[in-house]
Amino acid sequence: MSNFASLLFRALLALSIAIGAPAALAGPIYRVSLDTSALAGTVGYLDLGLNGPVDAAPTVARLGNFSGAFLEGDMRSGDVGGDVVNGIVLRSGPEWNFFDQLVTFGGLFSFDVSFEFGDGGNGTLFSVAFVDEALNYLGAVGNVIELNLVAGQPGELQLVDGEFASVAQVP
Fold first, then answer.
1. How far apart are CA 104 and CA 56, in angstroms?
2. What is d(CA 87, CA 118) in angstroms, rounded to the nearest whole number?
3. Cα four-point dihedral sign 48, 100, 72, 68
4. Are 161 and 140 in contact (CB under 8 A)?
5. What CA–CA distance (Å, rounded) separates 110 from 70?
6. Adjacent-strand bridge partners of 98
7. Using an 8 Å Cβ cutoff, are 96 and 113 in contact?
8. CA distance readout (Å), 123 to 20, 27, 29, 53, 167
9. Nearest-angstrom CA–CA distance, 14 and 2
């Protein structure tokens, strides 16, 4: 009976390691916070992109836990799925990959984002911008956040306009 108990204990230990391993291998989760008070009353789009060169490593961005003054309506380009209620998935590819959610600017917006990487040496750019209904940038010259992503390396974050955005890694 002692051998059976020892074997059972080892099997349960192996199972618990196997179940916990994917969480340990997952990339970091980032909490993105956007303050659009300087754009109060403007209707436009929260523009989320995942793009890179044609030979970039396959990358997937998973976005969720959205909060803010979202309106009905979005635009999509490329390999994009989901919505702000259930979560958004952006996949890098040869096309432009954007998800644009219609919003009323003037308040706080936030979401969580994590990334999965495939094999390859060239990176991908995750970007956040504010655009008007004609797709012209609002409040900044371009993107307010850019996160350069290369498999096996820490993300290189650039807050293009710190007045509007902050990013923190979720512990």
1. 34
2. 21
3. positive
4. yes
5. 11
6. 49, 77
7. no
8. 28, 15, 18, 8, 20
9. 18
How is residue 128 written in tokens?
Answer: 């956040």
**Nearest partner of 51 among 103, 106, 99, judged by Cα:** 99
Give me 118's structure tokens.
Answer: 């495939």
Residue type, 108: L
- Residue whose pair of structure tokens reads 């096996």 in the numeric block: 152
Q: Which residue has the tokens 């890179």?
A: 52
pLDDT in tens, the chain (171 residues): 555 444 434 443 343 333 343 333 346 899 999 999 999 999 999 999 999 887 788 899 999 999 999 999 999 999 999 999 999 999 998 789 999 999 999 999 999 999 998 877 778 889 999 999 999 999 777 899 888 887 776 666 666 666 777 787 787
Residue 51 contacts by C-beta under 8 Å, 6 or more apart in sequence?
92, 96, 97, 98, 124, 125, 127
Measured in residues, the chain has a length of 171
Locate tokens 């993105």: which residue? Answer: 32
Distances (CA, A) of 5 to 15, 16, 43: 15, 16, 65
Do 149 and 125 meet the contact criterion of CB atoms below 8 Å apart?
Answer: yes
